Amino acid sequence: RDDQTAIEMVERLAACTAKHHLILDLHGIYKPHGLNRTYPNILNYESVFGMEECRWTEAKNDMPLYDVTFPYIRMMAGQVDFTPGAMRNGTRDNWKAIYTKPISMGTRCHQAACYIVQDSPFTMLADTPTNYEADEPYTRYIASLPVVFDKTIVPQGEIGKYIVTARKKGNDWYVGGQSNWDERTLTLKFDFLPNGDYEAIVLKDGINANHDAEDYKIEKSVINQKSEMKIHL
Question: Glycosyl-hydrolase 97 C-terminal oligomerisation domain location, by residue (predicted)?
């Protein structure tokens, strides 16, 4: 809700938490409207059809489509509290809503890309600790991603179809790509990189990801600003 009562409540919360040097994550609230400029302790607003909807939503609520739509629209207003990180992942054919053991729509790598595509200074790992402990390489990968960045560009994308976001933190670049349910192969160019060679650690959909959404692989390669890399989503 974004009526006068709710807005006044948020302003009181922001002032009180700032006074006591606390951060504020506004989940279940309206979109950003600039209050975080006055109270920079406000790290996130939700105002999005977030990951928790996978616990009870219907299959017609197309999350992969939504994931490559709202970054172009909703995120123009500011940060988003989407709560990604699902470790149970389903394809279009085998996904279903399970309240006690939620399953995300789309691949595990699609979930990982949320941490780069979405502007979320106070993000989270939405699944249970034991599920992360069971897949240490993947967990180590997503846990290493920054939550704030120095520079952001979107070198490729089409609303409702796919998005590729590149973000810089210090001397490192992080690139995330997502697609709707349609499979596609993208050619990534790295002309935004300065001169020199870089080690690329690539987390990508596995060869069977269109049948097993949890299938992924991690590869390493050396790239530079003239390199091109084909990625199948």
Answer: 149-233
Specify the DSSP class assigned to residue 76. G
Strands 89-90 and 104-105: parallel
pLDDT of residue 60: 81
Instruction: Burial-class residue 81 by CB neighbours within 10 Å (0-12, 13-18, 19+).
Output: buried
Res 1: pLDDT: 86
> Candidates 3.20.20.70, 3.10.129.10, 3.40.640.10, 3.10.20.340; correct CATH number of 48-232?
3.20.20.70
Q: Is pTM beyond 0.90 here?
A: yes
pLDDT value at 189 more than 80: yes
Q: Give dist(CA 174, CA 132) in Å, integer.
A: 21
What phi, psi does 67 have (nearest 5°)? -65, -25
**Count of other CB atoms within 10 angstroms of residue 106:** 30
Q: Is 18 helix (H, G, I), strand (E, B) or coil?
A: helix
CB 103 within 8 A of CB 55: no
Domain spans of the chain? 48-232
